[in-house]
């Protein structure tokens, strides 16, 4: 019960901080909405090459939700660097709070913020572009992407604790995030690329998350993409969360 209470306290503390300054949440939404409005019509123009029945908005919208989760979670480590500098982490070290709760409360906050952003983006796509995702598939895809974000946020917090300053953290994250995004098929399905690019993309676990989210949006629950993507996403998230928890425990020991 102590772990649950500590997690809840950290979660609300982090969430209140976001609510006091929601500008970063809105900034995180701005870019995907711009992609939706400015890039979506281009995808619609070439959607016939993805298959006669392909809905461009069901291709692009779940991918943009993943983009929010990917970048929002990967850059969560900047917050821990700021907390290190302001002494928040040092003060938490002298409390009896469970070390795992200090990480889990922050990760749960990141998941809640992502879910809110995802629902806003989907609502914009439904109102402006007549997107009609499968209701159950929408819920499951957002949950799947939230799990992905939990793993990435955990790894980012661990990286922030290691780097201890923004310059190093930014260099590492920027060098990793761009190839991950380009090889995940977020902007266009990797199936339209050459075979060698598709082969490289298969090594990128997030490409499987994108495929699974798109299949769920379509309501294609029997697709192998759903099972492969879900398995890969959960496994990767668990590994990253263990790494994050160990780093947090070591830093706060």
Number of strands: 0
Query: What is the number of helices?
Result: 11
Quote the beta fraction: under 5%
Largest sheet: none
Low-confidence stretches: none
What is the approximate shape?
globular
**Distance between the terminal alpha carbons, to the nearest Å?**
21 Å
Structural class: mainly alpha
Radius of gyration: 19 Å
Question: How would you briefly describe this protein structure?
Answer:
This protein is mostly helical.
Structure explained in plain terms:
It is a single chain. The protein is mostly helical and about 250 residues long. Helix content is about 80%, strand content about 0%. The chain contains 11 helices and no strands. Helix 3 runs antiparallel to helix 6, helix 3 runs parallel beside helix 7 and helix 4 (about 75-85) crosses helix 7. The two termini are about 20 Å apart. The model has no long low-confidence stretch (mean pLDDT about 85).
